[in-house]
Amino acid sequence: MSPRRNRPSGGRQPSRPADGPREYGLEQTDHWRGEEWTVRRITGSAAAKHYRCPGCDQEIPPGVPHVVAWPSLGTVEERRHWHGPCWNARDRRGARVLRSRNAPRY
């Protein structure tokens, strides 16, 4: 039995699609609505606060892995915390329902 190889033979790196996301360390850039967005995946152990997902308007509790996205030319105030599936389905979702802070959750 020969030892296991961790890399594919041939020595070539897999190529990424030209229109796919570009990765920079823990962050990657993605294009959405004609803008370049910076996207960072947050692990469950790093998620320490409650956030509200703009995709589904539901709460993201502490300890749940999620996505933080903001326009690449934007400011810190423009960061939004999304559920991973909500971020992936952002183009297929309709307009979200805006509600006041004291409105019921149903």
UniProtKB/TrEMBL annotation:
Residues 19-30 have a biased composition (Basic and acidic residues). Residues 1-30 are annotated as: Disordered. This is ATP/GTP-binding protein.
